[in-house]
Amino acid sequence: MNILNAVLFNATWFGCVLGGELWGTIPLLFMGIQAVWNKSHLDFILAGILGFFGWILDSAWVAIGILDYHGLDVAPVWIVILWCALGLSINKCMRWFHDRAVLGAFLASTAAPFSYLSAERFGAVIVTDIYGLGAIGLTWLVLFGCLFNLLQKVGKGHYGHAC
Asked: Which residues lie closer than 8 Å to 76 by C-beta, 6 or more apart?
């Protein structure tokens, strides 16, 4: 199931970056079906929280001039879809990092700037401030460090094997 989740997460990324919300929604729906199948209710809560929080973050990065989504004043819907996909993956293909929060946070903070640069290569976003990617990386470091630590505690308490 973790491999399928990783494939669907990557399909969501490519779908969103190459085709926007239409193409990104299809693998996200399959990720939702996977979460229902596994009775992973916490995943839907995480998807909602990360979708909203991610939209706020990406919109802030647009407002301060780090990113440009082709003239939009706020982050586009496809970014919300990517953040929701992240919420549906964090207890599946990224679960290994729950017990290795520092490593997971470091890898997330390193991967985030490269993800935005890759999306720029595909024409999905314009990185207007290359040094601002450091701020994005630092934000992801803190966010994922806290998130993996929290999920480790939640997982030991009541989440069980349904992850």
From this structure: 20, 21, 69
Structural tokens at position 31: 């990720």
Residue 154 has pLDDT above 90, yes or no: no
Residue in this structure with the two tokens 């505690």, named with its chain if needed: 153
pLDDT tens for each residue of 11-56: 999 999 999 999 999 999 999 999 999 888 899 999 999 999 999 9
If pLDDT is split at 50, 70 and 90, which confidence band does 156 have? low
State the total domains in the chain.
Answer: 1
User: By three-state DSSP, how is residue 139 classified?
Assistant: helix
**CA distances for 91 relative to 11, 30, 83, 94, 106, angstroms:** 18, 16, 14, 6, 18
What lies within 8 Å, CB to CB, of 98 at 6+ separation is 104, 148, 151, 152, 155
The domain in which residue 14 lies consists of 2-162
Hey, what amino acid is at 58?
D
